[in-house]
Design a protein that fits this description.
This is PPR3E phosphatase. By secondary structure, the protein is mainly β. It is built from 1 helix and 10 strands, in the order E-H-E-E-E-E-E-E-E-E-E.
């Protein structure tokens, strides 16, 4: 099976206490990520500062020797807090992330009202590493009834 990208950070920062307050302070925060066969899927929350906004994810698979940027798209309806918007992204990683030694780094960019805000995981970037999936343990075939006891009187 292909390797899996394993986050080196909590994959659901949006589930932690005080998340909306962090979005209010920093204007943009990663909400969650999930590795899928198509790439890395995730969501970002931004403070709703103006109607027009652009959210994107800048990422690299080679330690920033080169990078790419993927747009994030608005996800209606907005979160129930009334002050943030949610954007979703998919980083199409392709064959480069198929290696077990693959490494992915990314940061989120939010452009609004002539300003630019970044979420780069407190200066460390969001990092994921390739990890080979462990195949199911192969052992002798188990009889499905081996743990069942039948007692006749």
């Amino acid at each position: 099976p292909p390797p899996l990208l394993e986050p080196l950070f909590p994959p659901q920062p949006g589930a932690s206490p005080g998340f909306v307050e962090r979005v209010r302070q920093h204007k943009v925060r990663l909400e969650w990520v999930r590795a899928e066969p198509a790439g890395l899927r995730g969501a970002v929350r931004v403070l709703n500062l103006a109607y027009e906004k652009v959210v994107s994810v800048r990422y690299t698979l080679n330690g920033w020797a080169s990078c790419a940027e993927a747009p994030a798209t608005y996800q209606p309806p907005g979160p129930p807090d009334g002050i943030t918007d949610r954007f979703a992204f998919l980083l199409p990683l392709g064959a480069a992330a198929a290696a077990a030694e693959a490494s992915l780094e990314f940061a989120v960019r939010y452009r609004v009202a002539g300003a630019e805000f970044w979420d780069n995981n407190e200066g460390k970037n969001y990092r994921l590493r390739g990890r080979q999936r462990v195949p199911p343990a192969a052992g002798p075939p188990q009889d499905p009834d081996s743990s069942a006891w039948i007692h006749f009187i």
